[in-house]
Amino acid sequence: MAVQADAQSPEATETFGPNLPEPFNFENVAALAEERAASVYTQPVSKLVGSFADLDYDKYRGIRFRKDRDPLGGSKQFSVDLLSPGTIFYEPVQINLVRDGISEHIPFDPSMLEFDPSQFPDGADLETVGDMGWSGFRMRTFLNRPGVMDEFLVFQGASYFRAVARGTLYGLSARGLAIKTGSPDGEEFPLFTDFWIVEPQPGDEGVRIYAILDSKSVAAAYQFDVTPGAVTMVRTRMALFPRVDLRETGLAPLTSMFWFSPASRRAVDDYRPACHDSDGLQMHTGAGQNLWRGLMSPRNLQISSFVDSNPKGFGLVQRAREFETFQDAEALYHLRPSAWIEPEGDWGDGEVRLIEIPVENEFNDNIVSYWLPKDVIPGGQRTEFRYRLSFSALPPSDLPLAKVRQVRSGRSINVETTRSYIIDFDLGMFRDQLPQFQVSASEGRIVHAYLKALPEQHVLRLAFEFEPGRAELAELRAALTDNEGLALSETWMSRWAA
Question: What is the Cα–Cα distance from 175 to 159, expressed in whole angstroms?
């Protein structure tokens, strides 16, 4: 919920006992962020020297955090690795540990690192190294196997962070804020500059992390309550202190990669049938609609807006969960997680915005989604938002609607300028009787549409052809319905561009 908050909250008045100082909490971080916002922004940059200068990818990977220097060494449930600066990570990050309510700074110390002798045969040059700051941190817990601590969360680089759930591998990323993404004026990349990791207590199933984000336009305080598991939940609270009115600022942003799939395979010569971290944007609107917008790698940058009021949820999803979909034994794209955003409270009017950027390989993220409020977030005052961000194989679903299983598209065998589309829905409740369907295009014409059950494949196939005519751009939609037009499936959407 977006609210104008007082400087103190009930949380800030808690104490551990008589005559003891107040424990470090969210309001401490908010006060620091508000102080930052009152000053002119200066981007922090470290001068990398000694063995941290001019590192290539392999050398950087040869620097590892020493397990015996774990700040959470007393925890039986969690461990943390502090990450070295180097390569593209040159902004200093200050990391603190909150123990018994007291914040303790952890200065950068190269003696806490190990240097792979195969990458540093002459040893590491640490004599000229000062406090360059860390570049981030990663956390581990018992996630997949008894007795083995697996990595489940990492904060590193600008305001990016990633998490995994049980049985998944790192894929898409979340971000603190998205400012002017896709703007012709250029994007503004805010930074997480400070973190406070709260030492978990015995029996804790999750960990609390505070952070400060800073940029030219805004300073902000964050609280992340992270609970790893079959669904890794990141419950998020943020207090924004804008230096200016925020107009093109996306909340709860997600960033992913989509190169090609059977639905969008433009000029790709690759042995794999598909290559992506996410294959669609799923939305549960405030009006109760369930939407699925398939992703694409366009010829030109594309921006799509889905107007809504008080959205129930949205996220970037990897529905393709079978190895056969990708045939990639190294990247294992079928194990990449989905990320789902559930706003807490009233987010008001706005839009889910999707940005798709042209890409020619799988090494750069090119998909961004976020919530863009309709109203300006005013400068000079505090505004709060809260939401739940879950990482899991698939997002939760509470409605008995048929979902899009797979989409294929290609040039029609009959007319070169016509496009064929094949949409497979879950067969589910339609085994005995076929439903009705609706297919539409904002421009051009839909022809030869039909519906067919494929029981052995457990899908209901909707096929049609799209004749664009003179159109340069068209929005396509399709859904299964009953005889009265009531939706029996989520609504599939796609954009066609010349």
Answer: 5
